Known about the structure:
The chain is an alpha/beta fold.
Amino acid sequence: MTWLITGGAGYIGAHVVRAMAAAGERVVVLDDLSSGLAERLPDGVPLVRGSVLDRGLLDAALAGYEVSGVVHLAGRKQVGESVEQPLGYYRDNVYGLTVLLEAVVAAGVRRFLFSSSAAVYGVPDAELIPESTACAPINPYGETKLAGEWLVRAAGRAHGLSTACLRYFNVAGAAAPELADLGVYNVIPMFFDRLTRGEHPLIFGDDYATPDGTCVRDYIHVADLADAHLAVARKLSADGHSGDLTVNIGSGEGVSVRELADLVGEVSGRALPPVIGPRRPGDAAKAVASAELIGGELGWSASRGVREMVDSAWQGWCLRHPDARGELPVARL
């Protein structure tokens, strides 16, 4: 069978493409390259350049490559931006998904894997977050992911699709330096960016009800995430599988932001003490996945630790920022 991977030239998408292609799956990528890079794709993987909003392009790609399953990773994913641009987020993440599902149903495709997010949970008060936790997103990004899950399941029930919704926790690291995250939106590259400019890492709040007062998060290596996609895709392909599978993708272990800042300083060789800023609205004190369901269903579990995430991310950062390893002036506190 052939899998169409939307957003396959992006940071997460390129890792999923490589994992599935290396495992012998036939894949084709659809990406508008607004944030993706064509050079991330392995040799021999076709690239269809365009948007999931383009129904004609989708119809042609699904038929032309005889697609039998879709992994949908394309979409917008910045929380702050979603607050400022909710219409754009609903257009791309929800309407774009609607157009894609219409094309999938028309083409007779019967397998659909949806990239969701732990943002669907909001800020639950729980030591570990299982999939049964009530969903109460607190920003438009999380809302679009929850609406996407509803839409995927409804289409699955109505049209006989086997579907899966994967709720990612905090994705980090790189399988190879050239695949590293280029954005400065997540905490590890944010720390790298400040350290490279000689500035101290910034932590938002240190008065939470956690052991060191800073937020605790679950970090998952992007290569583990890609392996999870492969496992789920094969589950959807299995004879007799039907219905929906909704699972967390996380390590099940928490790391505080202060611990992460210390580790980033150690790995980068720039051990500057963090500065503390005010809390950010909506930040939960702790958000750690329960990963028992996917372990029981598929035998998958995270195999890479947070040090490997930071080290691999740093190698990728240095590839794009060659001066990062050199001596830089340190800003005063």
